Amino acid sequence: MARPKTTLKDRVARQSHEDGVHLIWDGAMRGDRPHLHDFGNPARVLLNLVEHPRISIRPLCLEPRCIEPTHWEVKHERDHKYQDLAKPVWRDPRDTTASQFSDRELEEINENAQLLRDQEITEEDLSIFPAHIRAEIVARATA
What are phi and psi of 29, to 5 degrees? Predict the structure, then answer.
């Protein structure tokens, strides 16, 4: 009987260890970069980018084996062949403030926070939103 499949995050956790502020990859390397067979860089797994080929990552850390998600910069590639394609929708797992809101709510929060900052709307105009969304809009506008 075949053993049960493990999740990608479990595979990455099994082949890495914490060393201070770094998450060090103990698995295979391709050149000087960490490599997970069939998926590429294991940091992409931790950043939920496996299904997003048009989003790339660049290291910010000088440790070549580090796969800590906060030590990588996420880049949205510009697709020159199909310039009319929409930007890929990706929720950053490193952003803890966004975890309680849906993608649509986040879009509305960011849009209305900018409008509030630019004084195009007032706090009274935000009464159409639920209290938790209204509080987040005000917090982001005043930050």
Answer: -120, 145
Q: What secondary structure letter does DSSP report for 54?
A: T
55 to 58, 93, 127: CA distances (angstroms): 10, 14, 36
**Rounded distance between C-alpha atoms, residue 12 and residue 114, angstroms:** 38
Does the predicted TM-score (pTM) go above 0.85?
no
Question: Which of helix, strand or coil describes residue 17?
Answer: strand
Spell out the per-residue pLDDT of the chain, length 143, in tens.
Answer: 678 888 888 999 999 999 999 999 999 999 999 998 888 899 999 888 888 888 889 999 999 999 999 999 998 877 776 667 777 777 777 777 666 777 788 888 989 999 999 989 888 889 898 888 899 899 989 87
Q: How many CA atoms lie within 13 A of 108 on its CB side?
A: 14
What is the four-CA torsion angle of 81, 85, 91, 93, rounded to 10 degrees? Answer: 0
Note whether 76 and 88 are within 8 A (CB): yes
Name the residue among 52, 70, 51, 50 with its Cα closest to residue 60: 70
